[in-house]
Amino acid sequence: MAIRILLVDDHPMVRKGLRLFLKTKEDMEIVGEASNGKEAVEEMERLQPDVVLMDLVMPEMDGVEATRKMKEAHPGVKVVVLTSFSDQDHVLPAIRAGAEGYQLKEIEADELAETIRAAHQGQTHLHPRAAGHLVHQFTSGVSREEKNGPDVLTRREREVLRLITAGKSNKEIAAELVIAEKTVKTHVSSILGKLELQDRTQAAIHAIKQGWFDYRKE
Predict the structure, then answer these.
(1) Domains 3-136 and 144-217 share a fold
(2) How far is CA 42 from CA 10, 61, 120, in A?
(3) How far, in Å, are 16, 170, 181 from residue 175 at the CA level?
(4) Are 208 and 139 in contact (CB under 8 A)?
(5) What is the arithmetic mean of pLDDT over 171-177?
(6) Judging by DSSP bridges, how do beta strands 101-104 and 3-8 pair with one another?
(7) How many CA atoms lie within 13 A of 173 on its CB side?
(8) Nearest-angstrom CA–CA distance, 34 and 8
(9) Residue 141 pLDDT more than 60?
(10) What's the Rg (C-alpha) of the chain?
């Protein structure tokens, strides 16, 4: 069954471009459009889409408030932010409002399609710059009193998770810990399973929120 998508952007040309691209994807269906946050909330209620592709800066109601209202009314709806802004003043409020994805309008079209598919499956996809601001925001606010080690993980899994959260690739982790890359992949799978998370991004955000590692000392 196709992913039912509601397009939300105050620029008609942006909506047109998105519509033309998404129509080429057999697993996606555009069920409606909205030009501002207020209209988006109304259309979401009427159309019940699977995923809302949400701009942030719009008249009448911005994308953050629209996301918040949608999530309050229908927690199951997935929201992917598509915006030109990657600063923490935009990223953090959108994630707190409940957005599953945060991408910039500069990304490749196929990457946007993957983000939509991931959101539909309940996974988190963030543009690297947006993720970087999110990491900085959480790490700068972690106090020593809040730190409790992830006891569910083994010592080696904690080392791997620390390096994941520091932005290291599997290859870089393998080199730093002097283990095989295949072993790193096994540890990553175990970490995600134990923490009941879907991907590396979620694992990094989870570790940061819990205050498990202090990257100001890295």
Answers:
(1) no
(2) 15, 12, 20
(3) 46, 9, 8
(4) yes
(5) 93
(6) unpaired
(7) 23
(8) 5
(9) no
(10) 19
Residues ≥6 apart with Cβ < 8 Å to 154: none
Contact 32, 43 (CB under 8 A): yes
Whole-model pTM: value is 0.64
Burial class (CB in 10 A: 0-12, 13-18, 19+), 34: buried
User: Which pLDDT belongs to residue 155?
Assistant: 85
Nearest to 170 by CA among 159, 182, 162: 182
Quickly tell me which residue has 């009314």 as its tokens.
Answer: 73
Q: Report phi then psi at 143, rounded to 5.
A: -100, 160
Nearest to 114 by CA among 17, 199, 217: 199
Give the integer Cα–Cα distance in Å for 169 and 164. Answer: 7
| Domain 144-217 class in CATH | mainly alpha
Q: What is the pLDDT of residue 198?
A: 83
pLDDT at 168: 84
Q: At what angle do helices 155-165 and 181-195 cross, to 10 degrees?
A: 90
Arithmetic mean of pLDDT, 34-43? 97
- Looking at domain 3-136, what is its CATH homologous superfamily? Response regulator (3.40.50.2300)
User: How does DSSP assign 86-117, residue by residue?
Assistant: -SHHHHHHHHHHT-SEEEETTS-HHHHHHHHH
DSSP state for residue 58 in the 8-state scheme: -
Task: Compute the distance between CA of residue 144 and CA of residue 108 in angstroms, rounded to an integer.
Answer: 40
**Domain boundaries of the chain, sorted by first residue:** 3-136, 144-217
Strand partners, 103: 82
Q: Is 155 helix (H, G, I), strand (E, B) or coil?
A: helix
The mean pLDDT of the chain is 85
